[in-house]
Amino acid sequence: MPVAEDLDAPPRERRLSLWRDGIGDGAAAHEHRLLSAARPALPLLNWLGQFANPIMRVPGLGWITADPRTARALLNDPEHLTLLSEGGVGHLWAQILGDWVHDLFDGPGHHDLRTRSRELFTEKTSAAFVTRAWGARLAEARASFEAGEELDLADLSRVLVGHMVVTLLGLPIESGRGDDAYREIFATGEQLASIALGTTADTTLPPQKIAVAREIVERLTAHIGDAFGTAHPDTIIGRCREIGLTVQQTQGLSTLLMVAGTETAASAMARTAALLFDSGEQHRLLAMPQHRDDAIREALRVTSPAPLIGRSVLADLDVAGRRLRAGERVMVLTWTANNLAGPYRIDRPYLPQHRQLWFGAGRHLCLGGPLARAELGAIVDLLLGDGRPFRVVERRYGRKVLIPAYSSLVVQKDRGPRREE
Ligand code: HEM
């Protein structure tokens, strides 16, 4: 269906087009199965989200919205909404890291941190991080993939994200263990993030979960104190020092990067590959390589790897004629809001009402957006850089995971002729 038709269609038809493709083997069908494998309640919540336009109250959950404008207005309203009290991710982290999180994650310290860290991930530094962290491993993968070998892209994504964490945080790594050492780093980030599993309705953690999370944070950030004074400015620790952050701020930010930028990025990488194949859009991208960046933006929109953003209401406010009261919870359904705009199309124009809702909005807008885009660019180049299409040979959806993702996605080059020779 052409782009303009999708967006101009009446809301009811847009809703139908979102779910119509849910049966069969199309791109949307695989996305639906992936979401329900991760968290069986997700498709139901997303389906409900179609009616949350602009906002709706769900007993036991709180307010939900899948309207991009309402979502942005809420995420841009720190006077009335917070992620620190119960219902927000900051509440989880304060229990693990300590009360200083209140200042650093959502208080005046957060503003200071964001202002200072503005230059951490620009297009340029992100491209450099990707080359440095991935160059060798990616070249190896590309050589065997282009030679016709099968490649498990979901596994490779986890390994590559492990490499990125090691590079960014300057983590000491055991040599001689190959990919396994990096898989382990990824799994540690996953474990830390999984602490948040099951917190959709309640963000108060039991003591044993707090203890496990603290032990992981210690493992990941203990080296920072010693490395802080001498870390190279090309590492995040060195850059944090150069921009005037304290050791504690650097440890907090490193933990956040680990949690926010591992599973989300790996999820997006394999799902982008699946989307390009399932939708057939890889052929259009090969024919119109000028749409590479649009294809990446679209993949982020359609996959929306962080499908929900939670906040709690600090003070009563009115939204679209409904009164939200202090203490209630609000959930922005990013996946639904983004997918209501239509299916994956590499040449879909920029959607001004959505902007980059897959990265959130307002003061907590994803810090690693340029890095995520650079990572996805490298994956698209790996898949299609030689001008030939690929196919998905086999796939497995990740079960009971916080961020919906493929546990395995085996791809292989099609055996057709090269396009440009
Ligand atoms: C496709 C990949 C990614 C997606 C979809 C994504 C999505 C998001 C979203 C939705 C938020 C806002 C959460 C909220 O408002 O509660 C966020 C915040 C954040 N992201 Fe990302 N993210 C991705 C990759 C990354 C990467 C690669 C990094 C860095 C290595 C990163 C670092 C952060 C940080 C530090 C925050 C917190 C910002 C703050 O609270 O001020 N993210 N991300």
From TrEMBL:
What is a single molecular function from GO for this protein?
monooxygenase activity
What Pfam families would the database entry show? Answer: p450
The answer to whether keyword Repeat applies is no
Q: Which SUPFAM superfamilies match?
A: Cytochrome P450
Q: Which PROSITE patterns match?
A: CYTOCHROME_P450
Keyword terms of this UniProt record: Heme, Iron, Metal-binding, Monooxygenase, Oxidoreductase
Q: Does the keyword Magnesium apply?
A: no
Q: Which protein family is it in?
A: Belongs to the cytochrome P450 family.
- The name under which this protein is listed is Cytochrome P450
Query: Which organism does this record belong to?
Result: Pseudolysinimonas yzui
